[in-house]
Amino acid sequence: MGPVSLLPKYQKLSTWKGDSGKMTHLQAGLSPETIEKARLELNENPDVLHQDIQQVRDMIITRPDIGFLRTDDAFILRFLRARKFHQADAFRLLAQYFQYRQLNLDMFKNFKADDPGIKRALIDGFPGVLENRDHYGRKILLLFAANWDQSRNSFTDILRAILLSLEVLIEDPELQINGFILIIDWSNFSFKQASKLTPSILKLAIEGLQDSFPARFGGVHFVNQPWYIHALYTLIKPFLKDKTRKRIFLHGNNLNSLHQLIHPEFLPSEFGGTLPPYDMGTWARTLLGPDYSDENDYTHTSYNAMHVKHTSSNLERECSPKPMKRSQSVVEAGTLKHEEKGENENTQPLLALD
């Protein structure tokens, strides 16, 4: 069998040509609705798309200190989309992408799904990736913080697994335009675990995700967070851009505020949604393919994308999965936590960090 496609089944090559009657091959595969969204929200114009890309490429000569290892049209386009086609900002992001990799060489050695550290993190559900997208076409990523077994996974390996997952997902041009949502469930995340989140490793994560990756994050949602997660925010706030701070939402145990932003039909039951509980092995099986197996002897065809290699070797003994802790925010499917009468019924979460 060939590689598994992560594109939606309904997504077909578009023949939409826009107002100008023209469509570049770089927009092939996008739905007409997404092409129109790119035009309205990202200033994407098929008439000058190749010129925009070339203008970014022409700036590479200004940074001889950086090795730009990939400069093809499709690659540069994702940086333009991430920065709404402001060429200077897109180039700055492109430069930071490769500079981050130069400055953190150890993180990107053997940067593929079958690396032992990345493999363990993936098997333990870091990150979780929901199959379906939300009502805005965004991919939903999940992190169950309490599943971090610090004797098994380093924070760096979890970050590597997240970055690798984003590399695979961002190959989909629909996601370059529609973006991502991240939900972090802090249920049962202990103070001892939190003490390992030092400013230096949090800064490393922020630099990798906020400053050096061409993804559009529509929101980062915290649920069931304890007081010391609020304290951690104080540590990382100086490293966050104003736009990022405005997209971080703390819901506590108020799932209703989460549902005002992400509809329950797109969420698993852990978050009060109508979908079944999330299977921690789903995304790992997608990336690892035949290199993934557990006590249920799963076999799945791998996704052969950039940085992802599938092999037929058996999992190392140390990578055998441990039982996962389940979120304590589970409610019956379809049962929402409603606000008391008279409470604010707007679409804003319980607390926005801005």
UniProtKB/TrEMBL annotation:
One Pfam assignment: CRAL_TRIO
One GO process term, biological-process aspect: lysosome organization
CRAL-TRIO domain segment(s): 118-279
Composition bias type Polar residues, residue spans: 345-354
Purpose: Required for normal morphology of late endosomes and/or lysosomes in neurons. Binds phosphatidylinositol 3,5-bisphosphate (PtdIns(3,5)P2).
Name of the gene: CLVS1
GO cellular component: clathrin-coated vesicle; early endosome membrane; trans-Golgi network
Taxonomic placement: Eukaryota, Metazoa, Chordata, Craniata, Vertebrata
Annotated stretches, region: Disordered: 311-354
Topological type in the membrane: Peripheral membrane protein
Source species: Ailuropoda melanoleuca (Giant panda)
GO MF annotation terms: phosphatidylinositol-3,5-bisphosphate binding
Domain of life of the organism encoding this protein: Eukaryota
Assigned keywords, A-Z: Cytoplasmic vesicle, Endosome, Golgi apparatus, Lipid-binding, Membrane
Regions of compositional bias (Basic and acidic residues) in chain numbering: 335-344
Compartments where found: Cytoplasmic vesicle, Clathrin-coated vesicle; Early endosome membrane; Golgi apparatus, trans-Golgi network membrane
The protein, known as: Clavesin-1
